[in-house]
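agent> Task received from the user: take the single chain below, predict its 3D structure, and emit structure tokens. No templates, no multimer pairing.
agent> Plan: (1) validate residues, (2) run structure prediction, (3) serialize to tokens, (4) report one or two observations.
agent> Step 1 OK, no nonstandard residues flagged.
tool_call: predict_structure(input=
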Amino acid sequence: MNALVFALAVWWTSNTIAHHAIHRPQFRRRSTNRLFAAIVSVLIGIPQALWRDRHLAHHAGVAPRLRLSVDLLLQVALVVALWTMLVDRAPIFFATVYVPGYLSGLVLCAVHGHYEHAGGTISHYGRLYNLLLFNDGYHVEHHANPGLPWSRLPERRDADARASAWPAPLRWLEGGVGDLLTALERLVLRSRVLQRFVLRTHERALRDLVALLPPLRRIVIVGGGLFPRTAMILRSLVPDAHITIVDSNRAHLDRARLRISSVSFIHAHYPVSEVSEVSEASEVSDTSDTDLVVIPLCFEGDREAIYGHPPAPAVIVHDWIWRKRAVSRVVSVALLKRVNLVTGV
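)
tool_result: status=success, residues=345
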């Protein structure tokens, strides 16, 4: 719960107080504004000079560039000093509350920013949301008048603006959970640090579950072509198994082929009935003779049916962290994710 509170604090502060300070200084004196930015940097762990440069580049429509300055160096030093102190004096709090909350807050900010501009800048005019987030929903109006005080944005409401009934952090509900997870997956693909984190946390959880199973000969992984981490991990854990990735998105399969070899690919929905494309192993068109099936978090079928009637002797289901079933391991608190192992056919 504490990690969640901190995540919300990072997200809320970044999109309200910190955001407004970028466009309109909070105080008349420059020294006071520099002190304010330093305090905010320490509170949420995000150097405000870096956030300011990235955000103004976004408004200008240009690629952000790292610009060293006295303010940036000071803010980074203060954040690192705080982290060092927490590691030294409160390591458990740092590892179980601060880091998960911080990373989750960054994810919330990324989701928020993505959906504010997905397909073009979008506004949301809900009263409660705009009350709590200082008219953050008036985003079309903000881009048209970036220097206007937040309290006056409703005066410039654009009758022709694209609008959504959902605020930016929840806008993924318009397209379903799958769209959100795909967006997060693409975010991970942009960062080697995030890729290593995702691989490490998933490998630890999957290793524990695979160790409980008899020798595996055939494994079917549903989805997962965009970033085939499950296939990469299982190829290492079970090197002698025949691994097949089943994905309904051809572009995702094409990406997977560039990252992993010695696996088969089927372009189809699971369970496989009509195969659009089989690559690198023609004998895998029938996936019924399988020892292990891996179901993704974004599975579009009946997840409860998978749990109730496993389609293979062993099934590993990626699920939300609050859905513990059978034998289970937490992947990451920051990712809100666990994997559940069910057995029987």
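agent> Step 4: summary for the user.
The longest helix spans residues 91-117.
agent> Done.
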